[in-house]
Amino acid sequence: MSKITIYHNPDCGTSRNTLEMIRNSGVEPTIIYYLDTPPLYDELVKLIADMRISVRAALRKNVEPYEKLGLAEDRFTDAQLINFMLQYPILINRPIVVTSLGTLLCRPSEAVLDILPDAQKGAFTKEDGEKVTNEKGQKLN
């Protein structure tokens, strides 16, 4: 059985859809509710490096602390941005999924299909009604 970890926010539709696609592959992942248990500094640095994205790309922009802290301004170092994300975990863009095939910021949620070791076990439809896989578990788009 594959080991999969998801940094999850149950209030987020994208995160919920991603979690259900993992489960639809036959795996119950380790779920880290990162708002309650944010990663440590070094863990977050590693996640960002493993995703091969910039620290800014890992930063969620449409939440209250972003504007209040002036994070749109290009005056913060990566280390400062990471510290803001740890102080205000809502600033960490999600969901982040870690599998044996890689680490990925799964936006849109069906991006998770690219790093799941096991195929979908059947049809999957997102909460908004968009069909992602057919009854054979094959990706539709």
What does this structure look like?
27% of the residues lie in helices and 15% in strands. It is built from four helices and six strands. It is elongated.
How do the strands and helices of this protein lay out in sequence?
Blueprint: E1 5-8, H1 13-24, E2 30-33, H2 41-51, H3 64-68, H4 78-87, E3 96-99, E4 102-105, E5 124-125, E6 131-133
Parallel strand pairs: 1-2
Antiparallel strand pairs: 1-3, 3-4, 5-6
By DSSP, the count of extended strands is 6
| Percent range for β-strand residues | 5-15%
The 3D shape can be described as: elongated
- How would a textbook summarize the main sheet? 4 strands, mixed
* Low-pLDDT ranges: none
Q: Look at the helices and sheets and give the structural class.
A: alpha+beta
Q: Rg to the nearest angstrom?
A: 16 Å
**Spatial strand sequence of the major β-sheet:** 2-1-3-4
Order of helices and strands: EHEHHHEEEE
Name the helicity range. Answer: 25-40%
C-alpha termini separation: 27 Å
Number of contiguous helices: 4
